[in-house]
Amino acid sequence: MRDLDLLIVDSQKNSELLEQIIKQNEFFIIKCASAVTQKYVTKSDDEWSIAVMAFAESTNKYNLNKGSFLKFSELVIRRRLIDFLREQRRHSKEIVVDPIVFDTETTEDDTENAIHNEVSKNILQKNDDSIRLEISAVNEVFQNYGFTFFDLTSCSPQAQKTKSTCAKAVNFLLSHPVMIYELRKTKLLPIKIIQKNMNVPRKLLERHRKYIIAAVEILSGEYPLLAEYLRFIREEM
Fold first, then answer.
1. CA neighbours within 13 Å on the CB side: how many for 45?
2. What is the pLDDT of residues 58-80, one digit of tens each?
3. What are the contacts of 145-153 at 24+ separation with CB within 8 A?
4. Distance between CA 94 and CA 200 in Å, rounded?
5. What would the pLDDT profile of 176-205 be if each residue is shown by its tens digit?
6. Could you point out which of 40, 94, 99, 115 has its C-alpha 20 to 30 Å from the C-alpha of 121?
């Protein structure tokens, strides 16, 4: 099994090798997911998507000092699925009511958060393989930058002013293909260039780096369903 451990390390710089490893370990992923959920998991289940992304996450975080990769990966898959199941149980016990229904003075941020919650719920609960495939595909791209799709929930801007400023940065990059090329090549957000050309505070760019990169990759890539959730950025142009 040490050969696999070495392959995992190699796959951190080789996306094609990573895809092969994932395909070769599909049974292992299903076995881990089934053990946690206490049911047989198929590729049409949400648990499969969570488990695959957790497996990919474990390949990115693995090093030889962690011992057996499969044991390490099993632990990561278990943790991510437990988090997912807890969240599902919490949602099933709650009746979620948008503040818009009761509050006649609802703020724009409240509206945006309500929409965001609805999107998140649809992504997790809707039996739609197309959006799962988009999430899985873009998650592999995000991992090259050192974060995952689910990290975005904790680093997305909330205030309208901050969202508009981030949108300016995203649109600046989208209007300069050479900047996107450099972003993908270096995996670094060109903070100084954005700051100089768009008069955006450096601290804001640093704080929302993941969100800006994610928006650029989604809006410049082949992710039409995910792009719908970012259409407000295009409206800022």
1. 17
2. 999 999 998 999 999 999 999 99
3. 145/187, 145/210, 145/213, 146/187, 147/210, 147/214, 148/53, 148/57, 149/53, 149/214, 150/53, 151/210, 152/210, 152/211, 152/214, 153/120
4. 40
5. 988 898 899 999 999 999 998 899 999 999
6. 40
